[in-house]
Amino acid sequence: MTTTPSGGAQDVRRKRLLFRAHRRGFREVDMIFGTYAEQALAGLDDAGLDRFEALLGVPDQEIYLWLQGKAPVPAEHDNAIFAAMKALCNRKNPTWND
User: Fold this and answer.
1) Domains defined for the chain, CATH in brackets
2) 13-66: per-residue pLDDT in tens?
3) Looking only at Cα atoms, what is the longest distance across the chain?
4) Exposure winner among 9, 17, 35, 36, fewest CB in 10 A?
5) Are 42 and 53 in contact (CB under 8 A)?
6) 30 CB contacts (<8 Å, ≥6 apart)?
């Protein structure tokens, strides 16, 4: 991947991931992913971006069950990125995009 004059490949990747996070197609999951992305993407390193991108590839219904604690999280997705998104769901009276 080559860098671009507007901030490099990492910035382009973060913008692409942010766009995808807000437009998954399942409103509740869009809010969770979008909120997490707004708050955390800027601080993630390559490995963190890889883990987030892998979670973006999981079907909405499946990840929603994981976030609700109604299905076990597979080991390959049970990481700090997922834990931070689940913590968003567990906040008392969550407000999205704050």
Assistant:
1) 9-90 (1.10.150.250)
2) 999 999 999 998 889 999 999 999 999 999 999 999 999 999 999 999 999 999
3) 45
4) 9
5) no
6) 21, 22, 23, 24
